[in-house]
């Protein structure tokens, strides 16, 4: 099975920046101690302008994201420009083992944001707020 970075190599030289998420870091450290490992793994996050997530417009995007999730190396995928609307059900963009949080653009087409998170990661997260004013969309998690 190819690693996440191997799947992303078409983007050129991979960039490895560690973003701090205290609640996720603490959870990973606890899991690592239970496994007897010395160092917790990095938290891998993918941020992408997906330019339309709806499977009927491009049937390859959800399977591509699913492949990235299958590597087991990605905790969170944050997507912009999802172009989703209330007529598109979560089941149509579901990835097994992954929770989706989304905010569709109101009153206009295009726009929208979504966050895919591993179910074991999403259990500890909560959505504090979602917002759309027809121009920008926001999902707020602690």
UniProtKB/TrEMBL annotation:
**Which top-level group of life is the source organism from?**
Eukaryota
Name of the protein this chain belongs to: Uncharacterized protein
Q: What organism, scientifically named, is this protein from?
A: Petrolisthes cinctipes
